[in-house]
């Protein structure tokens, strides 16, 4: 970066798409198909949970959609907006935008769903963190992780 990217080879995206340098790979289907090997999807399906998902910016929309379809879940995407500007995000307690899915401030959108769904989820935009909302409110992420560790 300090060298202004000197030495980094670049080409127009149209040219890259025509070359063999760029390949399109479906990462969603293999992930969705393999969930059944990690999570008891039949139990979730049998429970007939009404699930709400706020994708908080959109990067996981296709994953959630395919999970719902593949496992015939009652899963609703409450927003399909892809928003790289973070305008969807509620301010945290200190007035800063913070993608902290354990914060009730950051999870205000999914928390508003607690009375509409048996279970609601929110993920940060790059989908490495999540928040879980039950009818009682935002679940403590450490409690969830403890249950996951025991399950796995």
Automatic annotation (TrEMBL):
Pfam families hit by this protein: PGM_PMM_II
One MF term in the entry's GO annotations: metal ion binding
Highest taxon above the source species: Bacteria
InterPro entries: A-D-PHexomutase_a/b/a-I/II/III (IPR016055), A-D-PHexomutase_a/b/a-II (IPR005845)
GO BP terms in the entry: carbohydrate metabolic process; purine ribonucleoside salvage
Stored Gene3D superfamilies: Alpha-D-Glucose-1,6-Bisphosphate, subunit A, domain 3
Location of the Alpha-D-phosphohexomutase alpha/beta/alpha domain: 29-137
Keywords: Isomerase, Magnesium, Metal-binding
Descriptive protein name: Phosphoglucomutase
Organism, as annotated: Vibrio cholerae
């Amino acid at each position: 970066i300090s060298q202004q990217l000197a030495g980094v080879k670049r080409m127009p995206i149209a040219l890259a798409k025509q070359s063999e340098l760029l390949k399109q790979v479906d990462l969603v289907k293999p992930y969705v198909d393999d969930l059944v090997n990690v999570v008891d999807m039949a139990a979730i399906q049998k429970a007939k949970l009404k699930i709400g998902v706020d994708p908080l910016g959109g990067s996981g929309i296709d994953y959630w959609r395919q999970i719902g379809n593949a496992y015939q879940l009652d899963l609703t995407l409450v927003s399909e907006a892809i928003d790289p500007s973070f305008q969807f995000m509620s301010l945290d307690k200190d007035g800063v935008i913070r993608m902290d899915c354990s914060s009730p401030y950051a999870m205000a959108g999914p928390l508003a769903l607690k009375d509409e769904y048996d279970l609601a989820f929110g993920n940060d935009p790059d989908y490495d963190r999540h928040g879980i909302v039950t009818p009682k409110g935002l679940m403590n992420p450490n409690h969830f992780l403890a249950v996951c560790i025991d399950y796995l």
